Amino acid sequence: MENRGYACNTKVGSAMDVDHCQQKEEEEEQEDPFLKFVDYARSELLSLEGDRNKDDDGSDGLGWSWIVSRILKTCIAYSSGVTPAILLSELSQAWSEQRWVGAPKKPLELINHLKKNHRRTKLPNTVTIDSIYAKNFLSLNSVLEAVIIDAFVLPGTNIHMLTLGDYWSSNIIDVYLHRRFYDLTGLQNGILKRGREIFLTGCYLRTATGGSGHPRLLPTEYLVILLDENQDDDAMLLGAQFCSDPFSSISLDAVNRGASYSLYARIEKIESSEIHRKFETLQRKQITLVDGDGVKLKFFLWGEQILLANLFRVGSMLALDKPYVNISVDCDTETSEDLCLEYGSETQLYLVPYIQHEEQVCVTLTPNRRHGSRPLGSFNSSQDLKFSQVSLPRDSQGTIDFSNYPFRSFVVDLRIKMTGISLYGAVTDIIKEENNQQTVFSLRIADTSGEIWTKLHFARFCLIIYLRSLGRVSFGHTVYISGLTCTMSKQKCLEVLWFENDIGASFINLSCLPALINSSCLHKLSRLTDIFYQTSYAQLLSYNF
After folding, report:
1. Is the backbone of residue 87 left (phi > 0), alpha (psi -120 to 50) or beta?
2. Tell me, what's the pLDDT at 538?
3. Tell me, what DSSP letter sits at residue 218?
4. What is the mean pLDDT of residues 297-306?
5. How far apart are the C-alpha atoms of 384 and 382, rounded to whole Å?
6. Domain of life of the organism in this record (predicted)?
7. How far apart are alpha carbons 89 and 81 in whole angstroms?
8. Closest CA to 171 of 197, 209, 134
């Protein structure tokens, strides 16, 4: 991705040599009271932080979209109207909680020690333990990247428990261990012990009831044990157990006689498909594995097992102990190999994760004034060096996540392989597309830098809720959309996609937000004669009768 720098004059009153149209756009954007309050609120939060963020690299900083989302959530909660004090109070409390979650003041000693060597980026569906407590909810496809704090047996039973923590939370949570993992919990040589990292998914949450107890996770079969090749014990395990059986040594006759294999290979590809049978349609994940000799073999996950694929990343090394060996024909697949692997009842999985590094996206402190409202640098010039560089995560496909980008994104800045984008602008056109699976609307969104088509995918059962809560969108309405992804369409044009169920996705119609109308700090009161035809932000009219 091209690195872009932004420079501007931070003095609002400075004379600028621009044509009349450009000056009109700047004045219009500058006068948007909602955007001005966003900038003001962020400057206040930064001033409250003081020197606590001196060593922050900006990746966990106050993202522009985070502030806008929190303000709009508060407006929805306080439909009768808000004041600057209410908004700043809510923002301050939310930011303090987030800072506590991201960097607890008294982290567990074990987590703190392991965190020094933690270099992985989160998996796409990863949730934190703190978020489970906050929402009292956990979806089935959520991923927990956890560290075992303790392993124990419930008194008077044979029920094994694990106490889990993670690198981003101040809370811990207990999980009932599935019986297929009991052999791995021995006090002397068990691998599931204090300090071991694991990935797990497919968890159900047992919430606390009757005002006593605390939430726990019910047993799940979908658990992967992490190994570190730089640790002696893990290196010995890999060498002794998993490096003696190449794919070429697998024999179906030996399997039929009771032989089992321990295999070690790199994940080359992860693909999804559906198998249509007479009375059902079965979901399947096809994972292509490559061993040290370059031999390829398919590893299949069926039905609910596909949740395991949430724990894998292309490039990671996967160790399979006692995988089920099947004939490719029985796997409903057409491959050049005679055999394939499946997740059997005795299969154990170990993972050496692929370490993804973050990309440094260099920007100067102040975005171009031609594109937006007053930059935060104008509030506090002492922050100049702090945001001179922003670290943004990039995945193995080159997609960069802008969820925590500290500045507002504009249409002119959009490029392919950008995700976590938020846009704020006016609706200039609406088209409802034909789609049998989802309700899809294409909205043309315009800001002062340009306009772009945004394709919104709503689940049918939630569409009515969205229309009732957000108001029916019309031409000229001001909207805020977060969780956007930029991609290339079949016509080789830049396309912006939004899916209602994606993490971080929100769609808010500011023009139908009661709190915006009732809050003088978020709108501008104008006379009818003062309104420009091209005004792209919300205004209220005053009439004299």
Report:
1. alpha
2. 54
3. P
4. 93
5. 6
6. Eukaryota
7. 15
8. 134
Please give the pLDDT value at position 361. 54
DSSP 242: I
Q: Which amino acid is at 233?
A: D
Mean pLDDT score, 231-258? 89
SS3 200: strand
Phi and psi, residue 74, nearest 5°: -65, -40
**Separation CA 150–CA 173 (nearest Å):** 10
Q: What's the distance, Cα to Cα, between the start and end of the chain in Å? A: 57
Q: Do domains 232-352 and 400-512 have the same CATH topology?
A: yes
What ranges do the domains of the chain cover? 232-352, 400-512
CATH number (2.40.50.140, 1.10.10.10, 3.30.2130.10, 2.30.30.100) of 400-512 reads 2.40.50.140
Residue at token pair 């006068």? 31
- Report the pLDDT averaged over residues 353-357: 73
Percent of the chain surpassing pLDDT 90: 27
Residues 6+ apart with CB under 8 A from 413: 4, 371, 449
Closest CA to 508 of 528, 536, 480: 480
CATH superfamily of 232-352: Nucleic acid-binding proteins (2.40.50.140)
Least confident of 129-133, 219-223, 363-367: 363-367
DSSP string, 432-476: EEP-SSSEEEEEEEEETTEEEEEEEEE-HHHHHHHHHHH----TT
Number of residues that this document lists for the chain: 545
Average pLDDT of 13-32? Answer: 49
Give the C-alpha separation, 418 to 402, whole Å.
Answer: 7
User: Between residues 477 and 504, which one has the greater pLDDT?
Assistant: 477
- Does 8 score more than 90 pLDDT? no
User: Which amino acid, 221?
Assistant: E
Q: Which residues contact 347 (CB under 8 A, 6 or more apart)?
A: 320, 321, 322, 323, 324
Q: Which residue has the higher pLDDT, 67 or 110?
A: 67
| 99 band by pLDDT with thresholds 50, 70 and 90 | low
* Cβ neighbourhood burial of 31 (10 Å; 0-12, 13-18, 19+): middle
511: its two tokens: 């023009």
Q: Is 482 helix (H, G, I), strand (E, B) or coil?
A: strand
